[in-house]
Amino acid sequence: MTDTDIQFDKSGTLRHFLTVEGLPRDILISILDSAETFLGLGQREIKKVPLLQGKTVVNLFFEPSTRTRTTFEIAAKRLSADVITLETSRMSTTKGETILDTLNTLEAMHTDMFVIRDSFSGAAHLISTHVPAHVSIINAGDGRHAHPTQAMLDAFTIRRHKGDFSNLRVAIIGDILHSRVARSQIHALNILGVPEIRVIAPQTLLPNQIKRLGVHPYYDIEKGLDGVDVIIVLRLQLERMEGQLIPSDREYFRFYGLTPERLSGARPDALIMHPGPINRGLEIASSVADGEQSVILEQVTNGIAVRMAIMATLMGRQSPSPREAD
Ligand code: CP
User: Fold this and answer.
1) pLDDT digits 0-9 by tens, 127-141
2) For residues 233 and 284, is the Cβ–Cβ distance under 8 A?
3) Ligand 1 interacting residues, C-beta cut-off 6 A
4) For ligand 1, what atom is nearest to the CA of residue 64?
5) I want to staple 69 with a disulfide (CB 3.0 to 4.6 A). Which of 48, 65, 178, 184 is the partner?
6) Distance in Å, CA 232 to ligand 1 centroid
């Protein structure tokens, strides 16, 4: 069974969120619309709605994370779920227990939803095939494969600024080869109707068959940025690189770093995005990361609302009406 098939239960309801690849546009739009209703909650004195009251969420992070781990935890708490977050250093997997035995142990505590991050591509899929029908799995990033909730929060951020997707040119710059974020973003943006997606990278950091994903590759950053509406910068995924794929950090920044001069080739209102963590002076100049066009921190804030929307959807809960949420 593919990731796409396994995400739905027998009645055709979305049960897991493992990848955006192959999901219908309606589902992505419904998640984005639902996230809109949750966004205002962060400004309220009591930042909670009772949608997941009585549900138990376990965040299992076998790989480091700042943004995804904390925003999932906050999202679950704002939905009134009981939530615990476990990281590798505190788990019995360090004493030889398998990931599936860990999962079975936590499932014995009547967990309703697991949020999984792992360096192994396919970890969330594997786990989704071992849980009972009432348990949902969310992929919080698996190896180089997918990071679907990041792609959704990026799409949400783009829609909030640009209105819709149908006239946009989006450029993704950096280590596309090792990036689960890029893969998920490309799938999401294609499904949502972005007509032109460009990927900009040295040849060593682009997958061979990248055009099959429906993108236009550029090796020259100035040409790739010409007239774009959105620029997504990615970090070099050094932890996944085998061998020397770039001559040096200095050379990489010289040829592919996003600087104010290069930014001037994009549209004047181009958004600057980055999933984080950012490496200043390596893939992006500090003045661009902190500049007026940057929405990098807004992406983090939006991540809470989008993750709330995804969790509520999988648990079959309607998001509150805008009045209830405001
Ligand atoms: N964007 C992202 O996945 O960041 P973290 O690794 O900090 O979760």
Assistant:
1) 999 999 999 999 999
2) yes
3) 65-69, 141, 147, 150, 275-277
4) 6
5) 65
6) 14
State the pLDDT at residue 238.
Answer: 73
* pLDDT (0 to 100) of residue 242: 72
Residue pLDDT, tens place only, 47-99: 999 999 999 999 999 999 999 999 999 999 999 999 999 987 777 777 888 88
Confidence tier at 324 by pLDDT (50, 70, 90): low
- What is the distance in A from the centroid of ligand 1 to the CA of 277? 6
Strands 56-61 vs 113-118: parallel, antiparallel or unpaired: parallel
pLDDT digits (tens, 9 = 90+) for 294-311: 999 999 999 999 999 999
The residue type found at 324 is E
Architecture of domain 3-145+301-325: 3-Layer(aba) Sandwich (3.40)
The string of pLDDT tens digits covering residues 253-297 is 999 999 999 999 999 999 999 999 999 999 999 999 999 999 999
* Cβ atoms 288, 272 nearer than 8 A: yes
Surface-to-core class of residue 223, CB atoms within 10 Å of its CB (0-12 exposed, 13-18 middle, 19+ buried): exposed
**Going by CA atoms, what residue is nearest to atom 1 of ligand 1?**
275
205, two tokens: 């950091």
- 60 CA → ligand 1 middle, Å: 14
Please report, in angstroms and rounded to a whole number, the separation of the first and last CA atoms in the chain. Answer: 41
258 CB burial (10 A radius; 0-12, 13-18, 19+): buried
Which one is the CATH code of 148-295: 3.30.2130.10, 3.40.50.720, 3.40.50.1370, 3.10.450.50? 3.40.50.1370
- Domain coordinates of the chain in residue numbers? 3-145+301-325, 148-295
Fold match between domain 3-145+301-325 and domain 148-295: yes
